[in-house]
Amino acid sequence: MDFELSDDVKGAIARAKDFADKYFTEEIAERADSEEQFPSDIVAISKKEKILDFSNPWQVLVTIEELVRRDPGLGISVTISAFGAEIFMFFGNDAQKEKYMNPVFAGKKSLGLGVTEASGGSDVASITTEAKLDGDSYILNGGKMFISNGQIADNFLVLARTSPAPSPEKKHRGLSVFVVDAKSPGFGINKLHGKLGVRATNTAELIFDNVRVPKENMVGEEGKGFYYIMTFFNISRIYVAAQGLGIAHGALDRLIEYSKKYADHSETGELKEDMQLAIAEIATRVEATRNITYKAASYLFKFTPNPIVTSMAKFYAAESAVFSTQKAMELMSLHGLTSDLERFFRDAKILDIWEGTTEVEKLIITRMMLKEGGA
Q1: 368 and 231 in a common domain
Q2: pLDDT confidence bin for 351, thresholds 50/70/90
Q3: Is residue 127 in some structural domain?
Q4: Would strands 111-114 and 155-161 be described as parallel, antiparallel, or unpaired?
Q5: Which of 112, 116, 242, 285 could pair with 65 in a Cys bridge, judged by C-beta atoms 3.0 to 4.6 Å apart?
Q6: What is the sign of the dihedral through the CA atoms of 71, 37, 149 and 53?
């Protein structure tokens, strides 16, 4: 098995590092967090410089990892403009790809995905947003909650119920996906404030009040929306794992930097044992997270996704991010509370929640292993 990255992927890492060095200043990162301010200027520059190469998924993966390693809020904001585009890629028709997907990949527009609702997030099949056929259009009513790019996306992919579930056991049926223009009459957006972390990202509530959507805006087949969203999650969870890897590595960077200063000022010039043990633990976590994330990605990028390994990567990366930031905070004491590590610590927790909670990922792993007999 070859663990060596290609020159193109190494080049993407170098470009991401240079970009973060130039634009991810502590002043900007702190302001974006404290004022809950989306870094629109930096995002615009990233699109102009094509920091994300959507033609090469490996380059996208390592770019996310490297940018989030520098700052999670800014890194995620820069790399989330195409959120949901894979649904167009796999299930959209040529006209939809040309109109909605290609401008996003070209850096001209941003996309959002509306699935989660206030009444529940993990149970996707229980959504209550409805889309009723009315002539040549569907009328959407309902709402979505905690939607990334809520205020800045030009279009949203929205999951809605188009027919009643045949039974409580088959409630995943009758769901469809629509493209909704953010400027549609009856479409309301409320920005969410006071998030624990990733405050630089734009998160909002979406409200649909008799929003008229043309029939041609349905993506794929009617009633297949649940399956489309699950397919997307098997892709996006790998990129979330890259976010967790970046946060864990960022915590390690800061702990090592702090430990060097600590050793310089100690009487013996050596680190205390607990500091040495923590660095080894976090470094091992980072390496293990990278290995399982890249393994999951290798399946996906060869069009043979392995949902078991994908769920393993997502939940383990999330746990590694939380573990690493918490351990580093404990050892860095007051400095940890007053440096950007405090922001990393808050930002890490969202990874346990979005794109499937850690508990959901573990259930997927166990159920599929019992069904298939192993990973």
Answers
A1: yes
A2: very high
A3: yes
A4: parallel
A5: 242
A6: negative
Q: Based on the fold, state whether residues 201 and 65 are members of the same structural domain.
A: no
- The CATH number that applies at residue 131 is 2.40.110.10
Backbone φ, ψ for residue 196 (5° rounding): -65, -45
Residue 374 above 60 pLDDT? no
**Do residues 47 and 79 touch, judged by C-beta distance below 8 A?**
no
Looking at the whole model, is its pTM more than 0.85?
A: yes
Question: 174 with 153: CB under 8 angstroms?
Answer: no
Which entry of 86, 117, 319, 355 is annotated as an active-site residue?
A: 355
Domain membership flag for residue 1: no
Our answer to whether residue 355 is catalytic in this structure is yes
Distance CA 146, CA 113 (A): 10
Domain boundary among the residues 223, 246, 268 is at 223
SS3 10: helix
pLDDT confidence of residue 267? 61
CA distance linking residue 233 with residue 231, whole number of Å: 5
Residues 6+ apart with CB under 8 A from 361: 237, 311, 312, 314, 315
Question: Cα–Cα distances in Å, from 83 out to 21, 70, 79, 101, 122?
Answer: 25, 21, 9, 10, 18
Question: What's the one-letter identity of residue 307?
Answer: P
Residues 232 and 330 in one domain: yes
How many domains, the chain? 3
Structural domain containing residue 215: 87-101+109-223
Same domain for 252 and 356, yes or no, is: yes
* pLDDT exceeds cutoff 80 at 263: no
Nearest Cα residue to 184 out of 214, 148, 145: 214
Task: Write the pLDDT tens digit of every residue in 134-168.
Answer: 999 999 999 999 999 999 999 999 999 999 988 87
Beta bridge partners of 117: 120
pLDDT for the residue 3 = 80
Phi, psi of 156 (to 5 degrees): -125, 140
Averaged pLDDT for residues 336-364:
92
Q: Which residues contact 10 (CB under 8 A, 6 or more apart)?
A: none
Supply 175's token pair. Answer: 């769901």
Residue type present at position 103: P
Same domain, 235 and 356: yes
Packing angle, helices 225-264 and 57-70, rounded to 10: 40
Contact 190, 205 (CB under 8 A): yes
